[in-house]
Write a structure and sequence with these properties.
mainly beta; 5-stranded mixed beta sheet; 22-stranded antiparallel beta barrel
């Protein structure tokens, strides 16, 4: 008993002595802008650069680190989206407790030099991407993501909603770093503009990214509410055009303990109008198109993050998209050549049917003890189903007023399943070098059934089935090092690709199978703190998508039918870029030049329908053109002229040498002859965004856009331009925001073209570009919490569909 008592007494003395010879560092971390506590900020205690101890702040932003030896330390405090804090603490016999109270500033590396992200959009140039943080000036642009894209440097949206980057539409579009089975043009119209947090432009992606997309990747990052307690935001808007269109979204979350539940729902509905006129000169034929689309779409997202401990996080979410729509296309074709055997045509067509997509994502993240050392596992499954019912009512009127009427229906059913599995590993080997590696499996299964009652179509072609399946397995590794003024990153991605296409249950097969390597390299040199140069290289690929390959009617008018081409080959691109960034006292300037070598470029083609004996019908499809080169440059300038006025002008130019085959129709012989053409296609875009701040609550904006004319291999596009004006007002302590925008003030935005191939034609399409948008946003919430950082990945197919309008 005496021995036990002695041992307990000895341990007590040792513990007391240790406590007397050790110290404690404690404190509180808050946001500088509003003094709100920051939960789960990382606090590290370092001795000569090595981490001695560390903790995360609690829900109130407090922390305490005990049992530290009495000496001098460096303290580092980090939280995503805020500047890192580095300071010093001293523990000694006379000062055994150090109290640290730090207010973190929001990250101020944005090129506009603005810390208030919610007020104006900011641009940050990173090593492999340009990040646009969406502010109130962009959300004022319109109801949906599609509306604000034309305000982004180097990005354009055409009248159909299709995106292009640096004048090229071969671009990957991702939502939160993940692909979607929904066509990007349609998806962007469903996402409310107020739901967007950031837009990433990755023009020359490294090897750790999937290699699809000649011009790069556009990644749209949505807000994920991360406030403590129960909170969220609501936004709604009305777009006034020929008729009113409505949009609204609600974001909610509930965070308790280590679990964060989040969800949102968005809705867009309304009727949209589009008109077109196409004139054929050799036979004086005029097509007049009247197009109306009634759309109603919903987007749901629900999920949760579970912080198992400081080193392990589990996350799950599901996206559910549903859209129902009706499209009405009236085509009036007049033959004005006086031929008594020619009949005028009037066709009323109606397209309707639902589209549903469900996405399910499960992710696990492990954070090792060493800072920046991580391991990620992620699985994603997406299932999409679409049904299109089409009705065609065609009336032909002869010169003697004799009328013939043909009515028939088409039915198209399609489904697509996309499954991906990923593993990604990041290891900072030292303070100056980092190793990244990973692997991915992507499996896509698609099916399409087509049935038509068209009496003109042969019986054997009135029903068809088409499947298009791909299996892609890949692995990548990258290594980077940093020095004082110089840094580099090299990498490579190995990929096995297999595609199998079957028409009518295997009667016609199209297969492709290959293994290839995609290298990448980045070199960055900091001339000084305000001037940076970067050189980069990557090899990329664009593979034919389902929409581009399926030999099934996508749309049809009496003179034009859209079909895919199952024999399309992938196009490969080698791209080199040089970028320069200069940070100014009140803004910044960025510029870049690029050169691309493109093999087997995929592009549109229009040629006569050989099955049509009249020689008037055309087929719209896709083909591979010969190898060509492209080059271009872009420049943007962000400057705060005064406290109340800032401007953001930008320009981009691209030129591509194209060579390919087009068809020229000979009217006397009613034959089409192939013609080889070599041309240089140039594209120029300019935009100016200017903000005027009257006071803390009221501001105005002015936006101008110009797209220059472009001569193409198939047709020549005319110039397009417009000007928008807007205003926004905040109230209720910045919790509510009211915005109004008058788009295309002078009603000048339209798409016009002319061509000689296969016939001499010219046309123009107009849409509801002149509109007034009125929007309201209301936010409610508390402090921030730690969130799971997801990997950024891409899709594996070229998303361009046929799409006429």
């Amino acid at each position: 008993m005496k021995l036990k008592f002695f041992l307990f007494a000895l341990l007590g003395v040792m513990a007391t002595a240790q406590a007397q010879n050790s110290g404690t560092v404690s404190g509180k971390i808050t946001e500088k802008s509003n003094n709100a506590p920051i939960s789960y900020a990382t606090v590290s205690i370092k001795d000569n650069g090595k981490v001695v101890s560390g903790v995360n702040t609690d829900d109130n932003g407090d922390f305490s680190i005990k049992n530290l030896a009495l000496k001098n330390y460096t303290i580092e405090i980090q939280y995503i989206g805020f500047r890192k804090y580095i300071g010093s603490v001293i523990l000694s016999d006379t000062k055994k407790e150090a109290i640290v109270k730090v207010s973190l500033e929001e990250e101020a590396t944005q090129l506009k030099g603005v810390n208030i992200v919610n007020e104006r959009s900011t641009i940050e140039q990173k090593i492999d991407r340009k990040v646009v943080t969406v502010g109130k000036d962009l959300t004022t642009a319109g109801a949906s993501a599609s509306d604000i894209m034309n305000n982004i440097p180097s990005v354009n949206v055409d009248q159909d909603g299709k995106l292009s980057l640096r004048g090229n539409d071969n671009v990957r579009v991702l939502i939160d770093g993940r692909p979607s089975n929904i066509d990007p043009a349609q998806l962007l119209k469903q996402i409310p503009s107020t739901s967007i947090k950031k837009i990433e432009l990755i023009t020359n992606p490294s090897a750790k990214y999937n290699p699809e997309g000649m011009s790069g990747i556009i990644n749209i990052i949505l807000h994920k509410n991360a406030n403590t307690g129960f909170n969220g935001s609501y936004s709604g808007g009305i777009t006034f055009g020929e008729t009113a269109k409505y949009n609204q979204s609600l974001d909610l979350n509930y965070k308790t303990g280590k679990v964060n539940f989040f969800g949102n729902v968005g809705q867009n509905f309304g009727t949209y109008f589009n008109d077109g006129l196409i004139r054929r000169f050799d036979e004086n034929i005029v097509q007049d198109l009247d197009i109306k689309n009634e759309n109603d779409s919903y987007l749901y997202k629900i999920g949760m993050d579970f912080l198992i401990n400081d080193h392990n996080t589990l996350s799950f979410y599901t996206n559910q998209n549903k859209s129902t729509g009706k499209g009405f296309v009236d085509t009036d074709i007049d033959y004005n050549n006086g031929d008594p055997d020619i009949k005028n045509i009037f066709q009323k067509s109606k397209y309707s049917g639902p589209e549903e997509t469900g996405t399910y994502n499960l992710a696990y993240k492990h954070i090792f003890k060493k800072e920046g050392h991580t391991l990620d596992f992620e699985g994603n499954y997406s299932d999409s189903k679409e049904t299109q019912n089409a009705n065609f009512d065609t009336k032909t009127t002869a010169p003697d007023n004799t009328v013939n009427n043909i009515i028939y229906n088409d039915l198209i059913k399609s489904d697509r399943q996309l499954s991906t599995l990923n593993i990604d590993y990041v290891n900072p080997l030292s303070e100056k070098s980092t190793l990244e590696a990973g692997a991915e499996a992507r499996i896509t299964r698609t099916g399409n059934d087509y049935a038509t009652g068209n009496p003109v179509v042969a019986v054997k072609d009135q029903m068809s089935n088409y499947t298009y399946d791909t299996d892609i397995y890949s692995a990548y590794v990258t290594f980077g090092q940093k020095f004082k003024k110089f840094s580099y990153q090299v990498g490579a991605r190995f990929e096995s690709y297999k595609v199998a296409a079957n028409l009518n249950y295997g009667k016609e097969k199209f297969d492709d199978d290959y293994i290839t390597l995609y290298p990448s390299a980045y070199l960055t040199y900091n001339l000084n703190e305000k001037n940076t140069l970067q050189l980069s290289y990557s090899r990329r690929v664009d593979r034919p998508s389902l929409e581009q390959t399926k030999p099934i009617r996508e749309f049809s008018t009496p003179l034009v039918t859209s079909l895919g081409n199952p024999e399309l080959r992938p196009q490969f691109t080698n791209s080199v870029e040089v970028n320069y960034t200069k940070t100014l006292e009140k803004g910044s300037f960025t510029a870049g030049v690029f050169v691309r070598q493109i093999n087997d470029q995929i592009s549109r083609i229009l040629y006569p329908d050989v099955a049509d004996l009249t020689g008037k019908k055309q087929i719209m499809s896709f083909t591979n053109y010969d190898s060509n080169t492209a080059y271009g440059f872009e420049a943007s300038f962000n400057y705060k002229i005064t406290k109340w006025w800032d401007i953001s002008p930008s320009i981009d130019f691209s030129s591509i040498n194209q060579q390919g085959i087009v068809f020229l129709y000979d009217s006397p012989t009613k034959t089409s002859n192939p013609v080889e053409r070599k041309i240089t296609v140039s594209a120029f875009n300019a935009r100016m965004n200017s903000n005027f701040k009257v006071n803390k609550r009221l501001s105005f904006l002015l936006f101008g856009f110009y797209k220059g004319p472009s001569d193409g291999l198939q047709n020549n596009s005319h110039e397009m331009y417009k000007m928008d004006i807007g205003s926004r007002y905040t109230l209720l302590d910045n919790k509510m925001n009211i915005s109004v925008r008058f788009n295309d003030v002078f009603n000048t935005m339209k798409y016009a073209f002319d061509t000689m191939y296969p016939y001499p034609q010219a046309g123009q399409f107009t849409w509801e570009s002149q509109t007034v948008y009125l929007g309201l946003t209301y936010n409610f919430g508390g402090g921030k919490i730690k969130k799971l950082q997801r990997k950024q990945r891409e899709d594996n197919t070229n998303k361009d569909g046929g799409g006429m309008f």
